[in-house]
């Protein structure tokens, strides 16, 4: 049996004086799409930040293995080079930095860390053109400064384009449906679905079931009070939509 792509074992995390994650256990196999659902404050986004290597989170117990390697020993840039990608809930605008310049720098930084040569301009342009065509990203978006003046849907689509170009093994989507109307949600979800594959694993974090109508998960986990309290198939998301989180909060308190 192959090694799981991601194994999280008894993960405890503090921020300042507050324990946020209280013994998280998750196993994600290659090619699977897992959804983590839970109300605000349950610890979902903290999990995504810890996986990406964000500062200010103190791991007090547990381990995270990525393809059998200790993820917690890697710096954020090393995690990115190894194939970990985090799509943020609110992508930031970077005035003065052209989108194309950013994409080329990101791709070449990743290649350098893997001991590969930099892309030539024609190679880079070909890769961007192919990915933009696949994801239906308009060329005028690529000519603007990164995320500046983008709508919520455009910002999310630009991140999906980054994901396509960097070709990560593990994609973490942190509430990627935040601030999107239903049309933008469909467009972004279609982009994500086009990047699904047998060698790519996705962790989709949300508290709305509507996203999972479009990005249908293999496994759904319910977070409450910093831990996983229930795991099931896609029907679990529908149950949450119908009943809410109260029953699961009661399980946590029991």
UniProtKB/TrEMBL annotation:
Per its UniProt entry, which superkingdom is the organism in? Bacteria
The family database entries (InterPro entries) matched by this protein are listed as: AAA+_ATPase, ABC_transporter-like_ATP-bd, ABC_transporter-like_CS, FeS-cluster_ATPase_SufC, P-loop_NTPase
| SMART domains in UniProt | AAA
Which Pfam families does the entry mention? ABC_tran
Gene3D superfamilies reported for this sequence:
P-loop containing nucleotide triphosphate hydrolases
What keywords are annotated for this sequence in UniProt?
ATP-binding, Nucleotide-binding
Q: Does the keyword Isomerase apply?
A: no
> What would be an example GO MF term here?
ATP binding
The ABC transporter domain sits at: 6-250
- Belongs to which family? Belongs to the ABC transporter superfamily. Ycf16 family.
What's the protein name? ABC transporter ATP-binding protein
């Amino acid at each position: 049996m192959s090694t799981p792509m991601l194994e999280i074992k008894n993960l405890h995390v503090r921020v300042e004086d507050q324990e946020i994650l209280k013994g998280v256990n998750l196993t994600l196999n290659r090619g699977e799409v897992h959804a983590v659902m839970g109300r605000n404050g349950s610890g979902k986004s903290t999990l995504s930040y810890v996986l990406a290597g964000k500062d200010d989170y103190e791991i007090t117990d547990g381990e995270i293995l990525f393809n059998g390697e200790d993820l917690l020993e890697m710096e954020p840039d090393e995690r990115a080079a190894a194939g970990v990608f985090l799509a943020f809930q609110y992508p930031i605008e970077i005035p003065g930095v052209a989108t194309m310049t950013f994409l080329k720098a990101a791709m070449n930084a990743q290649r350098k860390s893997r001991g590969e040569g930099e892309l030539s301009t024609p190679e880079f342009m070909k890769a961007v053109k192919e990915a933009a065509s696949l994801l239906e990203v308009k060329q005028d978006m690529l000519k603007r400064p990164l995320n500046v003046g983008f709508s919520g849907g455009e910002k999310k689509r630009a991140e999906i384009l980054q994901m396509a170009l960097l070709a990560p093994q593990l994609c973490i989507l942190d509430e990627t449906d935040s601030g999107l109307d239903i049309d933008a949600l469909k467009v972004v979800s279609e982009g994500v679905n086009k990047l699904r594959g047998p060698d790519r694993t996705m962790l989709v974090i949300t508290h709305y079931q509507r996203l999972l109508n479009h990005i249908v998960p293999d496994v759904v986990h319910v977070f409450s009070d910093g831990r996983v309290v229930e795991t099931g198939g896609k029907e679990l998301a529908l149950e949450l939509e119908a009943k809410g989180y109260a029953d699961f909060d009661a399980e946590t308190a029991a």
